[in-house]
Amino acid sequence: MPFFKRRRPVRDPIPTDSKVSKKRDQAVAKRFERTWRRLQLLCPDPDSQHRLKWLQQQFEKKQRGSMESAQAELDIATLLANAGFSLSFVKETETATADLECYLGNDRLFVEVTVIVPTDPGRLRDAKNFPDPKTEEEGVDFLKDGLVKRLLARINEKANQLADYCAPVVLAITIVHQEQSLLTNGNRNGRKMVLDLQQLGGVTTQALGNAPHLSAVMLTLWNIHPAESRSNIRLSNVSVGEWVSDPNGISQVRSFAVNPMASYPIETEAYLALQRVL
After folding, report:
1. Of 248, 252, 194, 190, nearest in space to 223 by CA
2. Are residues 181 and 188 in contact, defined by beta-carbon separation less than 8 angstroms?
3. Which of 21, 53, 87, 219 has its CA at 20 to 30 Å from residue 190's CA atom?
4. Is residue 149 part of a domain?
5. Cβ-based neighbours of 161, under 8 Å, separated by 6 or more
6. How many domains does the chain fold into?
7. Confidence at 138, pLDDT banded by 50, 70, 90
8. What's the predicted TM-score (pTM) here?
9. What is the DSSP pairing of strand 238-240 with strand 86-89?
10. pLDDT surpassing 80 at residue 27
């Protein structure tokens, strides 16, 4: 009796998470290398060269936190260079110092770069102190609340560290939302984060009221979408840049909140230069 083997239907291959991640990682590595080489030429002093080499080593570790910190510092340095500033990386000492010293003509300012990587609520479900969000909306709200608390804590922490500077100081905070991962069934696993940047600017401005030695806070949001503001009120000290997304799925948007109570305000020409590159 003949035996017939059932033929399985041919399905189109579903792109795996590893393939998507590999392609994205390659694009990120190329971007980092391109930015790194530009800054290596722009900042030839020994302290800057030493810092750039260290940042390269941190990026090549491919560890969560280290990679984002290295990327963010180069990103902010490039933004300052595009704004027309001459800059150098500040040598690290035992006491806390800013990361960058910048000049625009005779105007001088310091920039401290720091990174916040929010924790996905899904990773907290195993922790006893964190409830499991019942809905997608609850999970996103949980993430936003935690993010705002970490943002305020980071502003307060850095304000204390940089209190001795007798010059304008800009705190550049990069917030990195992790990319959504692709499951084997083709669906996406992750939460899209949307933030009201005007509202976030208001929260930042309120925090700056208690930190007169910080001249401004620049927020750079990676993979976070700007939400339409629910309020018609626009703060005159808060500027929001355009949301930029590239084909590799990496998006970026910036906001810039100037401290109205700053002990050392940013000079007008320097402020306008920063505002133009948002």
Report:
1. 252
2. yes
3. 219
4. yes
5. 96, 112
6. 1
7. very low
8. 0.81
9. unpaired
10. yes
